[in-house]
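Predict structure. Input: Coagulation factor IX, 484 residues.
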Amino acid sequence: MSPHNGMARVFLLFFICGLLLENWLYCGATLFLPQHAAESVLKRHKRYNTGRLEEVMKDNLERECIEERCDWEEAREVFENREKTMEFWVSYIDGDQCESSPCQNGAKCEDSMSSYLCWCPVGYTGKNCEIETLRQCDVRNGGCMHICHSDVVRGVSCDCAVGYSLDQDGRTCTPEGKFPCGKLGISIVAANSDTRATIATTATAARPPLGEVPDAAFFPTLPTIVTKENQDHRIVGGNEVIPGEIPWQVALMDKRTLLGFCGGAILSDLWVITAAHCLLEGKVDSIFVRVGEHNVHKKEGTEGDYEIAEKHVHPHYNKAQSQYNHDVALLRLQKPIAFSDFALPVCLGPKEFTEALLRADSKSVVSGWGKVRFEGVESPVLQKVEVPYVDRTQCKGSSNDRITRFMFCAGYATEKRDSCQGDSGGPHTTKQGDTWFLTGIISWGEECAKEGKYGIYTRVSRYYAWISHTTGLKKGTSNEDQEQ
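Output follows.
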C-alpha cells in the first residue's frame, strides 16, 4: 500500500469520529433535563432504611408487610414473638373483627380468626358483655317496673302485667288502656289531720262531646294516694278505706238477704277471684257480685251489681279433707264490669315474681267488711289493715292446725291487727313500685287478732298457672308456675 493511501484512510477516520462526537454532544443536550424538572416528572416516597443495605438492617413492619405483601415467616421475623405475630397475622389476613366495636359496657375487644373475644369488666358477662350480672331480681327488683325474670344464660329481663307494654328501655311498663290493672284511678289529698279527705279525679281535661274520640290529655294520669292515719280501728285494728282506694275489692252478696257474706277481687272485666269455702253454701244463681261498694248502708252511685255465669273451684279443693287447703275459686260474670275509678282490676304476676314480692315486702294490705273484733259486729264501711309476712317456721309453730305449703301467715303476734270473719275471699295485695299485685286471699284464722296467732292466707303464687289457664289472662306461663 502506498503512503498516500494510508494517509487518506487516517484522515477519513478522524473525519468520521468528529461527526460522531458532534452528534453525541447534540443528543446529550436534549436528552437530560435539569434536576428540578426531572424530579417533577417522577416522585417516589423514600422507603424505610433507604440508603442502607436492607439485608443487614433489622426487619421493619411497614417495609415487610405494608409496602409489600409478607408471609408468616416474614411477619414472625419482625415481631420476634409468636403471640404478637399471631395477633397481627389474624387481622392482617382476615380483617379486624373488632372494628365495629361489638363489645359493650367498656369491655376490651380482642380480634381472632373470623371472630372476636370480649374481655368483660367486673359485673358483666355474655358474648358482648351485654348481661349485667350484678343486676339481680332480689335487688331492687332488677330495675324492673313490674315483673323481673332471672335466667342463668340471659341474666335479668323485665316483663309487664297484662294490659301493659314494655318500653324500649326494657324496664318501664306503659298502660295500654284507660283502666290498667293495679293502678288507682283517683287522687286523694288529705284535707286536714282528721280522716276527712278531698277526692278528685285525675283527669285534667274536660270530657269531650259524645261521638268525638278523646285525646291523650283526657285519660287519667297515674294516681297518687295521700292518706292520714285515723283512730277508728276497724277490720280489727285497721282503718276505713277512702272511696276508690281499693277499687278491686268486691263483695259477694246473698240475693235473698241482700247482705254481703264474703269478699273477692277483680282480675278482669269478666273474672273475680275469691275463696273456695265462700261458695260452699248455695249455688251461683243465689248470689251476685257487687263492685264499687264502700258503705253498705248507703247508695253512693259507684256500685255495680253483676250476675255470675259460672264458678270454678280449684280441682284440688276438698272440704272433707280440709276446708281451707287450695282455698281458691274463680267466678265468671255474665257481662263485663264497667270499669271506673271505683272498680278496677288488680294485677296478677307469675309464680316466682309473686312469691318474691310477698316475702320481700314488709307490709301488704288486706281489706273487707268483716267483723271489727272476734264475734263482734261487721263494719258497714270497707276497712283495710297492713300486715307483714311471717316466716314459715314461725307461722307453722303458731297453730295446732295444719298449715300447708299452699298457705302463708301474715299479721302480728302481739298487736291487735288482723282480718276477721266476713273478710274471707278478700284480697291480700302487695305494691311493686306504684302498681298493686294480688299476693294472697283471706282464708282463715284462729279467732281474730289473738295474741300469738296470725291470719292465714291462700298463697296465690301457687295457682298462677291454673288462674291463667282458666281466665285466659296469660303472660308466658311456664312449667315452673304449676302447683308444687
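Residues 44-58, 187-237, 372-376, 476-482 have pLDDT under 50 and may be disordered.
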